[in-house]
Amino acid sequence: MLTQNLGYPRIGSQRQLKKACEHYWAGKIDLTELNKVARTIKEQNWQTQLDAEIDLIPCNDFSFYDQVLDTSLLLGVIPQRYAPVLSQVKKNNEIDLYFAMARGYQKDGLDITAMEMTKWLDTNYHYIVPEFTANQEFKIFNENVFGEYNAARQLLGDKAKPVLIGPVSYLMLGKEKEQGFERIELIKKLVPVYIDIINRLQQQGATWIQLDEPCLALDLTRKEKETFDYAYRTIAKRVNGVKLLVATYFDALLDNTQLAVNLPVAALHIDLVRAANKLDEVLALIPDGLQLSLGLVDGRNVWKNDYQQSLGLLNKAVEKLGAARVIIAPSCSLLHSPIDLELEIDIDPEIRNWMAFAKQKLTEVSDIRKIATGSTELLEANKKAFESRQLSQKVHKQAVKDRITGIKEEDCRRKSAFPVRQLLHHERFNFPAFPTTTIGSFPQTNDIRELRAKFKKGDLSLEQYDQVIEQATVDAIRWQEEIGLDVLVHGEFERNDMVEYFGEQLDGFLFTKNGWVQSYGSRCVKPPVIFGDVSRPQNMTVRWSKFAAAQTDKPMKGMLTGPVTILQWSFVRNDQPRETTANQIAFAIRDEVLALEEAGIGIIQIDEAAIREGLPLRKAKHPHYLDWAVKAFRLTASGVQDQTQIHTHMCYSEFNNIIEHIAAMDADVITIETSRSQMELLQAFAHFDYPNEIGPGVYDIHSPRVPGTEEMAALLAKAAELLPARNLWVNPDCGLKTRKWPETKAALENMVAAARYAREQINVSSLI
Ligand code: GLN
Ligand code: ZN
Questions:
Q1: Which domains does the chain have, with CATH numbers?
Q2: Closest by CA position to 232, among listed 200, 199, 265
Q3: DSSP letter (8 states) at residue 697
Q4: What is the rounded distance in angstroms from the CA atom of residue 625 to the CA atom of residue 646?
Q5: Chain centroid to CA 233
Q6: 649 ligand 1 Cβ < 6 A
Q7: Comparing C-alpha atoms, which of 78, 64, 86, 84 is closest to residue 131?
Q8: Is residue 441 in contact with ligand 1, taking CB distance under 6 Å?
Q9: How far, in Å, CA of 293 to CA of 271, rounded?
């Protein structure tokens, strides 16, 4: 029985790669230095995997920015707009071109936009989307994959296994940049290049090559299925002496099982964390000779593997295939898990004993093999850890569980329907037409960040800290009054992050010191870990909202993060369904909503930035997800009186498939991102006849650019053509935390002017 790994985190256990890249971009280090950091990380990773007794160890899984962008460079898929940068590229030094594609290029009188970035399937990792044209050509452009294999081979010998993104998924994950062709049809031109790459690697000595085809776990059209078949049949005919392994992950193969098991390759990898119950189906269809890699160890979470359960799956496979045809592996690349639990010396040892990060997951992979061949000690220790987790009072709170089982339909419904509430809100707040507001945060200056760091270190007392935050809040309020915003916010100066801030105050969460995971490029995130039943020991935001409300006569909006977003941006429990955890968080936030209301806050925003990204990969699973996600939001929002106005915010703009569910959330006001698409994305709302109030963002906060009054007024006019003007709010796209004050002030002044202009120009029918 072999063990293998599909990919290892490349950021370095102390985020060395992030720091090195950022220094390189800032011109503080040169390419030699940057390469040195990269080489050290790679060699350490390989050594770690060697030490853990992994038989097939990935190489070419390293990336300076993103593995899909690496593939584009490898295949020469370089958009035309980079031609001026390309012409400066020296042989074997494509890194500046590469970074230009990732981050844009503003130098030497050039101003070239970056390539688009999007989420890697259902993860929080973002990849750079390949851009294809009708006459797209492919050729081996960048040689890194061969160099990296050579380096790996020196250390690992035959164990070195190059990883490539498979040709079909590569095409599917890209997009057409012009009309008149389908990117999938480029396969005919692409396959010969893959054949060359594979043959070169084989000549260098590679015995195994991994081709990642995550799209095999998606809903596929007939044409896409045929493309898989065509691609691998063609490759199989032209390569020799090397075993190809097709890796799928993140979901079950379902109706693609037949297709996948019959691809003419040496081995297929399946994700048995996401689809443990589909092993039988795969085993039933697997043809003679195909090896099966079992993704037993969860690459997407931080929990210890349940050896008992893994053993059950493994035994089943061995029984059917024989040990020689079975490979033990993590479910997917370990890119998505934090690196090393050993660095987390502050975590409660009882809880730590239930956890495993990437490095520990490698050991689990080889432990499973040891257990399968007779080691009982490891199994016993693992059982004990699971028992302790199952029984621990740190995890299980009966009162929280009882509350969840007792959820009633009316807990998830506002007292009156929206039209009744809307009248009450207008009576209470006396809003003008086109009321203006912001999404919550104001610029977090370096001063504020340094202040928080000092406070955390203990160099500052709570009083000292609060005093500065209070002053920042008061200043922001005075300033919002001056420019004439209608609904004010306190500015969120006291918050580090919209999830962490709540997680730190809720029971059932823990935080790591070094649990970084790559989000995109040099950006890493450190998600909280939800380990136990979630409850709210005390008020979380009332202190700051009350303080802020007392500074002004204008309405002050309370600001909370919603249950689905907290869930989505954390590592969650795997011992209960996601929806149960969502409901627990929902109750905690609901109590906070009620506490804010009690404190006199009449408008409360519950941000659900991540509802859309929680959508499962397979369409058949969407209804169930949307159902519980919407319900969790409604549970959070529905305890209040009719007079209280509930807002929600979503920082994306794709609502087409989910608009009815967004409407079902029944927030009184929703603010969304639309400015970059010139309000085009409001079509979904217009088409659906969205009933409640809506604030389509009139300016893009992701850039320092200050939009003019006319520009924003024109967007408002456009929105008013699509939706009833009386339902429209005026606000930016998202929170202003990442902006600087000068541009924020200028932009918001213009925005208020645009709203005033709209009030004069656009006829707003009355509510009654
Ligand atoms: N209220 C949050 C803020 O303004 C919302 C952030 C977000 O949607 N990502 O920062
Ligand atoms: Zn947002």
A1: 2-79+115-391 (3.20.20.210), 407-446+483-760 (3.20.20.210)
A2: 265
A3: B
A4: 23
A5: 34
A6: yes
A7: 78
A8: yes
A9: 9
Residue 329 CA, ligand 2 centroid: distance in Å: 37
pTM of the model: 0.96
DSSP E strands: which ranges in 181-242? 208-212
Q: How far is the CA of 507 from the centre of ligand 2 (A)?
A: 26
Residue 23 annotated among the catalytic residues of the structure: no
- Locate tokens 């409407």: which residue? 663
Calculated CA dihedral for residues 475, 480, 482, 483, nearest 10 degrees: 140
Taking the CB of residue 494, how many other CB atoms lie within 10 A of it?
19
Tell me if 575 sits within 8 A of 309, measured CB to CB. no
Query: Of 595, 571, 562, 591, nearest to 509 (Cα)?
Result: 571
pLDDT at 616 over 70: yes
Please give the average per-residue pLDDT across 199-205, as a whole number: 98
Name the residue with the closest Cα to ligand 1, atom 10.
735
Catalytic residue among 23, 426, 622, 702: 702
- Ligand 1 pocket member 607 (CB < 6 A): yes
Which tokens is 517 given? 């995971």
The ligand with the least distance to the CA atom of 561 is: 1
Q: What is the pLDDT of residues 272-308, one digit of tens each?
A: 999 999 999 999 999 999 999 999 999 999 999 999 9
Task: Give the strand pairing for 693-696 and 291-297.
Answer: unpaired
**Alpha-carbon distance 576 to 13, whole Å?**
30
Closest Cα to atom 5 of ligand 1 = 735
Q: What is the position in ligand 1's atom list of the atom closest to the CA of 650?
A: 8
Amino acid at 31: L
